[in-house]
């Protein structure tokens, strides 16, 4: 489906709703920097190749929407989803390395704990990007389509059900203010899912979302459990 700015009187409202690329771009740069800097020589070449592929995938997305996310074609939609998915999958290589190193104790303790933190943060950003791209048709659809035209939601946010609350809350609800979630909202969903191992702020509404969130929560749980175990061993040995 092609999406582009309309030329009617609602264009200003659409422009205000449309997200800028820069918050997601900043998150992407953080994730890539953490991903490529993991001190694992066994996967160095793989990580460098994956980083180059991701950057090459990102260039046409910037060309389509250099600043505000207002245009979308079928190929750009699939490319943006693929981009986020590749970032998530690529980071799982580092997750596997950290888990293996934590189990067999083959790496330096302090370095390994810092690496686990790198991988954990990169995972938060990567899954946040994936949620941002999937929900309600992605950022372009959320920012430019009228609400009845939006695809089925992957998440239900508190604002989506606060239309009957007290006035100061109702005024920022989806029903009253036409609120749409942005990148920071999905980053927060990803962060809380990694920390609490379950949804807290927004509830998953579709099977695919539940599967993705479950895999992220499981990764976070395993990393945290093994990191705590390794930290205890390090303290006990000192």
From TrEMBL:
The chain crosses the membrane at residues 21-38, 44-66, 78-99, 111-132, 211-232. Keywords: Membrane, Transmembrane, Transmembrane helix. It comes from the Bacteria. This is DUF1345 domain-containing protein. It comes from Microterricola viridarii.
């Amino acid at each position: 489906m092609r999406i582009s700015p309309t030329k009617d009187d609602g264009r200003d409202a659409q422009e205000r709703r449309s997200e800028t690329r820069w918050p997601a771009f900043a998150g992407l740069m953080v994730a890539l920097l953490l991903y490529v800097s993991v001190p694992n020589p066994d996967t160095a070449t793989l990580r460098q190749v994956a980083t180059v592929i991701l950057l090459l995938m990102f260039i046409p997305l910037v060309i389509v929407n250099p600043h505000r996310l207002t245009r979308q074609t079928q190929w750009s939609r699939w490319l943006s989803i693929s981009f986020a998915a590749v970032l998530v999958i690529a980071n799982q290589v580092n997750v596997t390395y950290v888990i293996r190193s934590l189990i067999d104790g083959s790496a330096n303790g302090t370095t390994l704990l810092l690496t686990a933190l790198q991988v954990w943060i990169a995972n938060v950003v990567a899954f946040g990007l994936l949620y941002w791209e999937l929900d309600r048709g992605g950022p372009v659809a959320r920012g430019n389509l009228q609400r009845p035209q939006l695809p089925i939601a992957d998440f239900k946010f508190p604002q989506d059900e606060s239309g009957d609350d007290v006035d100061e809350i109702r005024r920022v609800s989806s029903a009253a203010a036409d609120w749409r979630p942005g990148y920071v909202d999905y980053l927060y969903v990803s962060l809380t899912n990694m920390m609490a191992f379950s949804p807290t702020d927004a509830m998953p509404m579709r099977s695919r979302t539940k599967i993705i969130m479950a895999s992220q929560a499981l990764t976070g749980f395993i990393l945290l459990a093994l990191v705590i175990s390794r930290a205890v061993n390090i303290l006990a040995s000192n």
